[in-house]
Amino acid sequence: GAGVSQSPSNKVTEKGKDVELRCDPISGHTALYWYRQSLGQGLEFLIYFQGNSAPDKSGLPSDRFSAERTGGSVSTLTIQRTQQEDSAVYLCASSSGPDTDTQYFGPGTRLTVL
Amino acid sequence: AQTVTQSQPEMSVQEAETVTLSCTYDTSESDYYLFWYKQPPSRQMILVIRQEAYKQQNATENRFSVNFQKAAKSFSLKISDSQLGDAAMYFCALTNTGNQFYFGTGTSLTVIP
Q1: Do the strands A109-113 and A10-13 form a parallel or antiparallel pair, or are they unpaired?
Q2: Contacts of residue A31 in chain B, CB cutoff 8 Å?
Q3: Which residue of A100, A102, A105, A111 is the best one to mutate when testing the B interface, meaning the one whose CB has the most B CBs within 10 A?
Q4: How many Cβ atoms sit within 10 Å of the Cβ of residue B107?
């Protein structure tokens, strides 16, 4: 079946503009994660959705970052008033349950803020 | 707090040889899961192998195996008969709740023909 998809693949924006990044998880997966990967770094946890529960937003770096998940499926990560330090690859992953199941990753969105 | 440490930023191996990537971690939980993920230049993170902490037997997936030392909090990945397609960034990861996964900073593996 289809894996996790993300769009756009690449996004170049100007400092101060807002951007939206989209994630389509694997059908039926109830858990969805967003990560940020800066150049040469590991993955930084941003936010976690599980079913209809309140999301775990503890990893969001500032109030410029927000995410929502509509209908328990597609998720959008929004970055307002982008800064150059926001430049990174944003990865989305989904898993089939609320336990410690394996995450399946999308190909990521490379965000460049000029 | 949970932490994952990969002390080898870069490693290289001759094709067909064996290489071991190191990972140490820290957690106060007794029940947790450990993972190795591979990230090729395409950026797609791919699960390589998974280990439940309560299982004493080391996980194995074809040419990939782990050496899980729970007391030492060590979780190394051994790649046997290395192939050119194994060249990638390798990340070690830990979770105990499934809510948050903690990743190391990665090891870049080069396979020399």
Answers
A1: parallel
A2: 98
A3: A100
A4: 22
CB burial of residue B28 (10 Å; 0-12, 13-18, 19+) = exposed
Q: Are A74 and A24 in contact (CB under 8 A)?
A: yes
Distance, CA of A23 to CA of B31 (rounded, Å): 30
- pLDDT tens for A17-72 read 999 999 999 998 989 999 999 887 788 999 999 888 889 998 999 999 999 998 87
Cβ–Cβ below 8 Å for A97 and B98: yes
State how far the Cα of B78 lies from the Cα of B93, in Å rounded to an integer.
Answer: 16
d(CA A76, CA A10): 15
Residues B1-34: tens digit of each pLDDT? 789 999 999 999 999 999 999 999 999 888 899 9
Name which of B108, B94, B43, B38 is nearest A91 in CA terms. Answer: B43
Tokens for A96? 């089939």
Taking the CA atoms of B12, B61, A31 and A105 in sequence, report the sign of the dihedral they define. Answer: positive
